[in-house]
Write a structure and sequence with these properties.
This protein is mainly alpha-helical. Helix content is 56%, strand content 4%. The longest helix has 25 residues, at 77-101. The radius of gyration is 29 Å and the shape is elongated.
Length: 395
């Protein structure tokens, strides 16, 4: 067979045998240049039931590969170590692709990636093919015994490795009872009284005040509030719909009547800014995370604009367009901390404190625990039951 004039179908077959051969060498740590490796590979093909013709085709492919490989110098020790790190690099690339494929939140992908890098460092860049469940057990136990992390941090690392093993490495992740668990602490959330809420609100200005009022009035998470779009508000029916909240769940919530007029005035100013952006040729807002590319055209439509847009525009390097993102969470947190400090409140107050206060005050108003669970977006009522303690403390 003339190896320089292979038919297209034969080329596809030869690439297949080469890919199998490289995978075989990588898995069993054989040198691709060693002739004995070819013998072992053909034995493997025979044990898998491949025909004589297929084995001859694979042998011809490997012979040609070795002839080409001999024209290049073998890698030194330093290059071999870099190649091992590249394997982890490929693993991280596959991880990023899987995060996008499963449409996980960007923050989740960032957190999981951080844990995977720590896992790689703990294993001292052990070859990916040699990583097994025992390595995960050792890492999680090390976090509890040496790093002394809290249980929630260890669970976060556990979930990151679960994603790595299940969706990227495709390996068993049955740890059983081998992992030494970090000590669980019983956490009771901080809540504000109605008087304290009023004190904080009186020392805030819009738009941060309106954000805080939605956190407390609807029990929203900060990210849910910042990512609100105009189309999610139904002011005539006094409803707000949360799309793809935590756990990718949707829920509808009533809007406090005292905020309807204020939201109408706020949206008028947002609409005026939006029209100015369109006249200046800007690209509207950013599409929702993980949305199809065809949704980009919707970014210039009014319902898709952020309720709380940023003051400045953001340059998108890929397209060269300038778009308007939503208000950054750090700006709101800074405003809230300043208001709490001026109020003289000694409690540790954050954005989530307003959400906790919402649930606790509903419980004080004799709302059913299941109703509160639905409004908070909790998957398990046990999560909602913690507010029975905060409700009792406020009585």
């Amino acid at each position: 067979m003339d190896k320089q004039n292979l038919e297209r179908e034969e080329q596809v077959e030869w690439f297949k045998w080469l890919r199998y051969y490289l995978d075989f060498c990588n898995k069993y740590h054989h040198s691709t240049r060693n002739p004995e490796t070819e013998v072992l590979y053909l034995q493997k093909l025979s044990s898998k039931g491949q025909s004589e013709a297929q084995q001859q085709q694979a042998s011809g492919c490997i012979t040609l590969f070795r002839e080409v490989a001999q024209r290049f110098p073998a890698q030194g020790k330093e290059q071999a170590q870099a190649l091992a790190l590249t394997d982890w690099g490929h693993c991280l690339v596959a991880f990023e692709e899987m995060i996008r494929y499963r449409q996980c939140a960007k923050s989740t992908g960032k957190t999981y990636r951080g844990w995977i890098l720590q896992f790689q460092e703990f294993l001292k860049s052990k070859h990916v093919d040699q990583v097994d469940a025992d390595d995960a057990v050792a890492f999680l136990t090390w976090l509890a015994t040496h790093r002394r992390v809290v249980s929630t941090t260890q669970n976060q690392a556990f979930n990151a490795l679960l994603f790595l093993y299940r969706h990227v490495l495709k390996r068993p992740y049955d740890l059983g009872d081998k992992v030494k668990r970090a000590r669980r602490t019983r956490y009771v959330p901080v809540v504000l009284s109605r008087k304290e809420v009023d004190q904080v609100f009186s020392r805030m200005d819009d738009p941060h005040l309106l954000i805080a009022q939605l956190l407390y009035g609807c029990g929203l998470r900060l990210t849910e509030t910042l990512q609100l779009r105009v189309g999610q508000l139904n002011l005539s029916h006094r409803m707000v719909t949360i799309h793809r909240g935590k756990g990718r769940k949707d829920r509808a919530l009533p809007l406090p009547g005292c905020l309807i007029e204020k939201l109408e005035v706020h949206l008028k100013s947002v609409r005026a800014q939006f029209e100015q952006d369109l006249e200046a040729g800007f690209g509207g807002s950013f599409a929702p995370e993980g949305s199809p590319a065809k949704w980009e055209s919707r970014c210039t439509q009014w319902p898709w604009q952020f309720v709380f847009p940023a003051k400045t525009l953001t340059l998108v390097p890929e397209s060269g367009k300038r778009k308007r993102y939503h208000v950054h969470g750090s700006h709101f947190r800074k405003s809230l901390r300043h208001a709490v400090w001026k109020s003289g409140i000694s409690k540790k107050v954050g954005a989530h404190t307003l959400r906790h206060s919402f649930a606790s005050h509903l419980l004080l108003a004799n709302y059913d625990i299941r109703t509160i669970q639905e409004m908070m977006g909790h998957s398990d009522v046990k999560t909602t039951m913690i507010y029975t303690q905060t409700g009792m403390a406020l009585r």
